[in-house]
Amino acid sequence: MTFDEFVTARGLSLLRFAVMLTGDRDLALDVVQETMVRAQVRWQRISQTDRPELYVRRMITNEYLNWRRGSWFRRVLLRADAAPPGDGLRARVPDHAETAAERDELWTLLAGLPRQQRAALVLRYYEDLSDQQIADVLGCKVATVRAYISRALATLRESAVLTLRPRVHGSER
Amino acid sequence: MIDDEIRAAFARHEHLAPSVDELRSRLASRAAGRARPRPLASPLAAAAAVVAVTAAAVAVPALHAPHDASRAGGPAATAPARQPAAPGQPPARTFVLLGDSNVPGAPAQDDSVMLLHVARGGTRAYLIALPPELRVDGEGRCTQLGCVADRDPQAGVRQVVRLTGVPVDAAVTIRLPELVGAIDALGGIDVEVEEPFTSPLSDRTFPAGRQHLSGAEALDYTQQGWKPHPVGSVERAWRQQEVLAALLAAAHDKGVTADLDRLTGLLAVAGDGIDATAPLSTLASALLRYRNLVPHDVVAVRFPLQAQNNSPFVVLPGETDDLFAAVRQDAVPAYTARHPELVHRLVP
Questions:
Q1: Using the beta-carbon criterion (under 8 Å), do B17 and A73 form an inter-chain contact?
Q2: pLDDT tens-digit profile of A13-38?
Q3: Is the CA virtual torsion B2, B5, B11, B12 positive or negative?
Q4: B182-218: burial string, b at 16+ Cβ within 10 Å, e else
Q5: Is the ipTM beyond the 0.90 threshold?
Q6: Which of A108, B80, B81, B273 is deepest in the core (most CB within 10 A)?
Q7: Cβ B179–A74 below 8 Å, yes or no?
């Protein structure tokens, strides 16, 4: 499979994966773009692996986890940073430009998780990977993966959005 | 079950994914850029740093801070929301800029706090400085906005939202000392000094009128007021606005082009060890989105402030309610048309 054929066949799937990681359309496009630029350079080697797509997804995950910030600005505060869950600031000005998706509270809470925790959730619940596979992607131990997921689920449970619904304990895998 | 809810949340947002055609277009642009060797002259690299200051503020689109109109006597919470942008048109965005002029060894100063509103269409932008001496509550020992923003920028942004009722898309702290090298590489910047003054930090004299400043002089210019101001230190934010706009103008004059690949490369060079990873292309992408915004169209809106006798706090005048409502509704051009006396052009 050539690089172009790979982009055609799997591009949308990779972009969706990046949206799940970043929570943002534009950032997802940036992450995939940067990853694919590097993947193109070494495509001959990647294409010879057992599962090129898995390899590229690992690159995308690393790209997402390794973002760095420039020295001209030291802090970029996103919505989740500015309004930690439970601080009573979730009431928002109605904005007709927003889509229903943007109003999704659980989506907002996911965006507020630390990157490793969010990545672990995406790999488990969107990619359906096992803990061992997630550990391989994240480059950590299985126990660390379980800790990431456990903390993430605890954070989500504590949020208001989940207390509105019947609580089911012991539901995580 | 929480597992199902998470899966459902992911599934509901698959539609946010960009199209493969967009990805192909980006990749083609990068490939074309690599095919054309482009030396990165240092002034252009420095210009990119300037651009990044603006771009950083627009690098996180479609994120909205919450609104809490708890400000006593504050803006009407029922103001209509801004209209969506037309297809292909940059939407209206509002950002909080926290200006940090502190340098080691000098007396510490609180961060300046500004709103940057880019009107729908991306061709006009408005800078509104909030006095650091605005009173805030519930932030521990800090009772002034500048103090809160300096110690905890996240809390500072929350207070800005509370005070103004303006939903904020993102916030950025700009370290002005980091821009000294960029200003020098550009050959300096031009600012209009309104009143002559001598800097107590450097004994440098700034005559009135148009002055050409080096990087160190520009930093000095942003670090203090030209005289004890009756309503606090808001003029430090005004000066930071002038320097940032002048810097943007100089970068614009140097001809930083709207080329994604070139900008990304320039950002990497100017970033002092930052390589061309996702954040840099994010900045470049954001800049491209607002490429029709020229420095001349970035203006400051300065409202008259009221001091309270023997009080360390400053009170916002009543007309600011209309201004903040105009920001919420993306109707600032109409507001400035009604109040031309409040408009301060930053770049002639």
A1: no
A2: 999 999 999 887 877 887 888 888 88
A3: negative
A4: bbbbbebbebebeeebeeeeeeeebeeeebebebebb
A5: no
A6: A108
A7: no
